[in-house]
Design a protein that fits this description.
- The chain is α+β, with helices and mostly antiparallel strands.
- Among the domains are: 207 residues, no CATH class; 50 residues, no CATH class.
- Strands 6-7-8-5-4-9-10 form a seven-stranded mixed β-sheet, with helices on both faces.
- The N and C termini lie far apart (79 Å).
Length: 560
């Protein structure tokens, strides 16, 4: 079902009215083309024809279309059609039909041997969930037309459904039977013009989450938000507080998981949306910092997001180090490039299957300095300090995570990243000042205390230092940071049983028996003492563990 690949016409994807073989009018729907022709050629009866759009259906969509009932009136709608016109691969597919959305979804799920769920019984919407080879999911949603038009006039009902959507670039439908496009609001023209335009003056106020969606799509596609639409977004910003937290959270995670997250956040701030979404972040604006910081706290935070984006790109398995002219990116390849595959695998393991690990890491970066405003003070030398901003920031990000209804694992990871984000900097400072790399015991404690966030902390620290220094960062400092990153990653992936998670030599029962102890806190304290010294290379056998524990117990009892 591949589409005809003829040279693209200026009327590609449009309905045209032909009189004696000549185009006399055009439109996004057959009715629009007909009305346009009648206004200038009212005495002539035109032929209405669709001019093929130049795109190719992706294989997964080809497969889906082959199993749809042959007589079913069903349309591919929304972002998937937009993506076809932009030659992008859509991650999900929405279908609209006059009725029986749930029933058709169940039938499609059975045919594809996929999972099925009722998404919205009131709106007759069913979802098919396809599990891809890499463990990700593709969602197929089947929904009855929205609106009040009687289903006896299905074409009019479809148009009403499309007009009720968010932006014109998403108000598109594809008829898979004849490969024609229904475009009542000229969304295809806005795609060509690279414009985000609301479908109606009330589109944003009726659903303010569309502010976030519009900003995200504008940044992702490199589009501009049309002037009136920007005005409507500003006017509707206060309505964000009435949107369900789950919908807001999902849009925030999509923004953080997409390209140029900092640009989206800047746009949300300018539109007045941030104060209704995550107001605690705005307190960072204008909070000055002492050198080597070159930015205020808010600008620094957005810079960290940019550098984190660049860092992950440079550490992707398909990155070509030969093509970069950035010396700092070249040093990344030299120092830690051998861990590209492991880092990529780490980033593909989300703590929640519905949210990207990348988004969670970017959320931690967004909040890593959130408590600098409340902890700021100047010491006797006039240098600005932010004592305990990491510990207090961990509490704030955990509170935000709970308000977003994130899972316990996600909350713990965010807390851990923000709480411990300064440790990497301390390692590097000691290396630069004293030429002392972290000891084996320090490496063990780093991974023990970070609770699974060790790799995330490495990535954040590298982005953080670039955000601190900007163009003033020296090769010496950057090389030191990469040396610490190499040491930590090397221990994590190449010597985990030596320093990161040494095997337990004896358990609590054995220790209590050998030292004549009763169950209690002291037993756990001694077991951890043993593991630390295993990691340090000072304990290598059960006998050594018992003897060392005996000596440590004597010190504890003596109050030393």
């Amino acid at each position: 079902m591949n589409h005809d690949q003829r040279p693209q016409s200026p009327y590609s994807g449009r309905w045209v009215a032909l009189v004696r073989g000549r185009v006399v009018a055009q439109g996004g729907t057959p009715e629009q083309a007909l009305r346009a022709s009648q206004s200038s050629r009212h005495k002539e009866k035109p032929e209405i024809r669709f001019v093929s759009a130049a795109f190719t259906l992706p294989p997964i969509l080809e497969k889906i279309l082959t199993i749809l009932p042959s007589q079913a009136e069903v349309y591919l709608v929304g972002g998937a059609v937009r993506d076809l016109l932009m030659n992008r691969l859509s991650p999900d597919f929405d279908f609209a039909l006059p009725s029986s959305g749930i029933s058709l979804a169940r039938s499609v799920a059975n045919s594809l041997n996929a999972d099925f769920m009722v998404l919205d019984e009131e709106r007759d919407t069913g979802r098919v969930v396809l599990t891809n080879e890499d463990g990700s999911f593709t969602y197929l949603d089947f929904a009855a037309f929205r609106g009040t038009t009687p289903m006896t006039d299905s074409r009019q009902a479809l148009e009403e459904d499309l007009r009720d959507r968010d932006f014109t670039i998403n108000a598109l439908a594809l008829n898979p039977r004849d490969m024609t496009i229904i475009d009542p609001l000229d969304g295809a023209n806005d795609i060509r013009a690279k414009i985000i335009r609301a479908c109606a003056p009330t589109s944003i106020s009726h659903d303010p989450v569309r502010i976030l969606r519009g900003v995200r799509q504008a940044v992702a596609f490199g589009f501009a938000i049309e002037k009136n639409t920007r005005t409507w977004m500003k006017e509707a910003a206060g309505g964000i507080e009435k949107v369900t937290v789950e919908r807001l959270r999902d849009e925030v995670f999509k923004i953080l998981g997409g390209p140029k997250a900092s640009a989206s956040l800047r746009a949300l701030e300018m539109l007045g949306a941030m104060q209704h979404l995550m107001p605690e972040l705005l307190e960072m604006k204008g909070v000055t910092q002492s050198p080597p910081h070159i930015h205020d706290v808010w600008t620094h935070t957005l810079s960290v997001l940019d550098h984190l984006d660049d860092l992950l790109s440079s550490l992707s398995p398909d990155f070509d180090a030969e093509k970069t002219s950035d010396l700092f990116m070249g040093l990344i390849s030299l120092k830690i490039g051998r861990y590209r595959e492991q880092i990529a695998a780490h980033m593909t393991k989300p703590l929640n299957p519905n949210r990207l690990h990348r988004s969670l890491l970017f959320l931690s970066a967004l909040y890593h300095d959130v408590c600098k405003p409340s902890t700021k003070f100047a010491d006797e030398n006039g240098r600005i300090r932010f004592f305990d901003h990491d510990l207090k920031g961990a509490e704030v990000v955990a509170e935000r995570a709970r308000s977003f209804n994130l899972s316990n694992d996600e909350i713990e990871r965010l807390d851990s990243i923000v709480r411990h984000h300064m440790r990497f900097h301390f390692f590097t400072e000691r290396l630069l000042k004293e030429s002392q790399p972290p000891s084996r015991k320090a490496i063990y404690r780093y991974f023990r205390d970070s609770g699974g966030a060790g790799v995330d902390l490495v990535l954040l620290a590298l982005a953080d230092v670039r955000g601190v220094w900007g163009n003033t960062l020296t090769q010496e400092i950057w090389a030191a940071y990469l040396d610490i990153a190499r040491i930590l990653l090397e221990n994590y992936w190449e010597r985990p049983k030596e320093t990161v998670n040494p095997p337990r030599i004896l358990d609590g029962n054995e220790l209590m028996k050998e030292l004549n102890l009763r169950p209690g806190r002291i037993v756990g304290q001694l077991l951890e003492f043993i593991r630390e010294n295993q990691a340090a290379g000072k304990i290598n056998s059960k006998d050594e563990a018992i003897e060392s524990a005996r000596e440590e117990l004597a010190k504890i009892e003596a109050g030393l």
